[in-house]
Amino acid sequence: MPLVLWPTRYDVAVIGAGILGLATARELVQRYPGRKVVVIEKEHGAARHQTGHNSGVIHSGLYYAPGSAKARLCVTGRELMVEYCREHAVPFEICGKLIVAATEGELGGLDELMDRGTRNGLTGLEYLTADDIAKHEPAVRGLRAIWVPQAGIVDYTRVADTIAAGLVAAGVTIVYDAPVTDLLVTGHEAQLATPRGTIVAERVIACAGLQSDRIARMTGAASTPKIVPFRGDYYVLRRERRSLVRGLVYPVPDPRFPFLGVHFTRRIDGAVWLGPNAVLAFAREGYGRADIDARDLIDAVGYAGFRALAMRYWRTGLAEMARDWAKPLFLRALRRYVPALTLRDLLPGPSGVRAQALDASGRLLDDFAFDESERVLNVRNAPSPAATSSLALAKEFVDRLEATAA
Asked: What is the C-alpha to C-alpha distance for residues 367 and 356, in angstroms, rounded to an integer?
C-alpha cells in the first residue's frame, strides 16, 4: 500500500471533488473553522466529471415544481453563485434565457412554466410575441416565448478550482487518485478504504455523482434507486456563425418525455453549444460513443427500472439514438428554432454524462434525494441544476448532517 503522507483521522470526510463536494467542504470550514475536513477524490484533479462537462448555465429555477427542493435550492443557489463569482472574480454573465414555443401545442406548456416561475419567486418574467422574440434573438423563430432575465452563464470548472484553492488555503486536505473502495461504519467512526490508505472520519458526506448508488450500497442503504447514466452530445457553432445565438434559447419541455430536448447555449468564452441529445451511456464515465464499461452496462440494462423506462419511451429512445449518429437529424431539431443553420455550421463538440437516479418502476427521480444515517449523508440524486444550486445544497447537506447528530 502506498505511503500515506497526510493525517488519516478527520472530523468530516467529503467524498467527491466535483462542485458539490467542494462547496460542501467550504460550508463545513466556514461554519466550523476548527474542524478537520478531508475531500477524497477518485480522479487526478477536481471537477473531472459532471461539473467539468456541463453546459455552464446558471439556472433560474423556472422549470422545477413549486415547493420542491430543486426549486427552492436553485433560486437560492443562483443568488449565492452570483455573489461568490463577484467576490472571487470568476467571470460570469446574466444574459437571460428565452424559452420558445414553436407550435400551438406548446403554448399550454409555456403558460405552465410562467406559473411555475412566478410561484418560485422569479421576477421580471415576460411573455414575448414572435416579433418580440426577434428583438432578443434575431435568428430565432417561434410563436411565443418567455423571457427569463435571471438566467446566466459561468465556467463551473473555474468555480470549482477557485473553491478548491480556497479550501487548501484554509487547511483542508484534498486527496486525489483515491477512489473509495469500501466504507465501514461503526458506532463511533467511519473507515474509508482507498488505494492510498484508509481514512477515518467521525462523519461522512458523499457527493459521488455517477457512483452515488454504489457508495450507498457500501453503507448498507437500499439498492434502489440506481444511477443510470445518460450521455448528452453537443455540437458547437462554427465561430463565424456565433452571432446567430446571443444568449440562451431553450424549448418548452414535453411532459411526455423525461429529458428537455435540444437547446442553444452561449458559453462564457463566447462559444455556442448546440444540443444535447440523451442516450444511454455504455460507461458511467464514458464520454464517447465507443466508451464501454462492461460492469456499468450490465448494471444499467440489467436493472428493471431501466427496462421499464425503455419500454415506456422506446420511440423517443430510438429517435435520440438516430439523432446521435445522423447529423442531418440533429440539424433538423435545431432548425425548428434557428432555421438559418446549415450542416456546415455544426462542428463536433463535447459531451457529458448525467447521473440520473431511476427507481425500480422506471421513474426518474424529479428532485434531489439523500440517504441519511447517523454518520453518513449520501447525496443519492443531484443532477441539474445541482451546479447552480451547489452553494445552497452545501448548506442543506451540513444542516442534515447536524440534524442526524442531534
From this structure: 10
The DSSP code sequence of 295-312 is: HHHHHHHT-HHHHHHHHH
* Crossing angle (nearest 10°) for helices 19-31 and 386-405: 50
Residues 342/140/107/367 CA torsion (nearest 10 deg): 80
Which helix (H) or strand (E) is 73 found in, with range? helix 69-87
C-alpha distances (whole Å) from 243 to each of 134, 149, 249, 271, 399 are 13, 20, 13, 10, 45
Distances, alpha carbon 382 to alpha carbons 17, 156, 227, in Å: 14, 15, 11
Alpha-carbon distance values, 120 to 20, 63, 66, 227, 380 (Å)? 23, 9, 6, 28, 24
Q: Where would I find the H helices in 180-223? A: 212-218
Residue 258: is the preceding peptide bond cis (ω within 30°)?
A: no
* Alpha-carbon Rg for the chain in angstroms: 21
Q: Report the pLDDT averaged over residues 165-192.
A: 96
Q: How far apart are the first and last CA of the chain?
A: 37
Residue located via cell numbers 437571460: 96
Give tens-digit pLDDT for 289-324: 999 999 999 999 999 999 999 999 888 888 888 888
Host H or E run for residue 274 = strand 272-275
